[in-house]
Amino acid sequence: MKNALYLLLTVLIVSCGTENNTQETQQDNSLTLVEGSWTLNFNLGEGILAPVAFNLSQVRGRYQLEFINGEEKIVTKSVEIKDKKIKISDAVFNSWFEGEIINSSTIKGHWFKNDGANKIAFEAHHGVQERFKKPENLPFSETNISGKWEVDFSKDVPSDHYKAIGKFIQDGIYLTGTFLTETGDYRFLEGNVYNDVAYLSCFDGAHLFLFKATILDDTLQGEFWSGTHWNEPWIATRNNNFELTNPDSLTFLKEGYDNLEFTFPNLKGDPVSLSDENYNDKVVIVNIMGPWCPNCKDESVYLAELYNSNKAKGLEVIALSFDKSSDFEIAKNTALKVKEHFGINYEILIAGKANKIEASKSLPMLNHVMSYPTSIFIDRKGKIRKIRTGFYGPGTGDYYTRYIEQTNDFVAMLLAEK
Known about the structure:
By secondary structure, this protein is mostly beta strands. It folds into 3 domains: 4-126, Beta Barrel (Lipocalin); 147-238, Beta Barrel (Lipocalin); 247-416, Glutaredoxin (3-Layer(aba) Sandwich). The protein is 14% helix and 45% strand.
């Protein structure tokens, strides 16, 4: 469909799925964009493009974009248009696009994060196409990389090396999948396979990922880009039996400590401690998280539902928010956005700046804070029963399903104890 859209000067709220939006819009009749499927290419330098698909539409008189990563749909409703300038902001993460409307089917500009010091150029065009453009005069190949792979990132650099599981599903030239690491996952990846080369990308509002690999029988030789700030090689081999270290064994109490203790301010500035009366004789999940972290976003969705379903039975959840900023007001407002967006009814505390060393200092009883998120499960007597490092989100398929089922059962067991 190629109906022209009249774009508006708006002040709207971005949403990954929330429909609440009552603010007025103003129409700028001098500007038009084409409704439908678009491809936005981020320029990572030296001709390296990271594409992401989005749909542009009008809903009840308001304009929005829907970014697409495989099964994931991220709706963005905050769109400001004036004098051929467009700004698109994210509701949860501190990131935004600023661009110029070149014509009805082309936008050029930059994507910004956090303080705006770093930016990545982009160019967006209307039109249905494959996520990754097919190279010209490419011979046909029946290569299929569906399955489970043992992955080494930065294998030849010990200080950067880490293991991962690659899970891919290929249907013709269409490819989806993800990478699971000991600290989380790379969420929903989508791309294409052309002859002996595989491409995957993801944009979730906070992170921009690009993966490329050459297929050599049962080996993948690849390269990974995280925005413009990180680039590393990876290699993978098929291995259906490969597993990572048990996430429940990576973080633990140091010798000499019996329990978890902390005092941090809540969003009102009032001090909250695990020893407060509100948490006596309760099962408590302490969630170490960051409002900038997509894996934390995935777990927050789950924890919000788990809490609402079990609060009356004696479950409490406390989120310890580690922000990119050390300023309390900035950190508070960022956490408040997360709380409101996901309908979180449990306490969120401002725990400090998002630095793993500093986070470890603020929780000295732990051997380390290895990952955002990390969840600590405490029984009614105040004893730590399990510490889960990282979170496998919905992009990991059966890993996510299995973890949710196991955690639901584990929490039910703790709640049944007297």
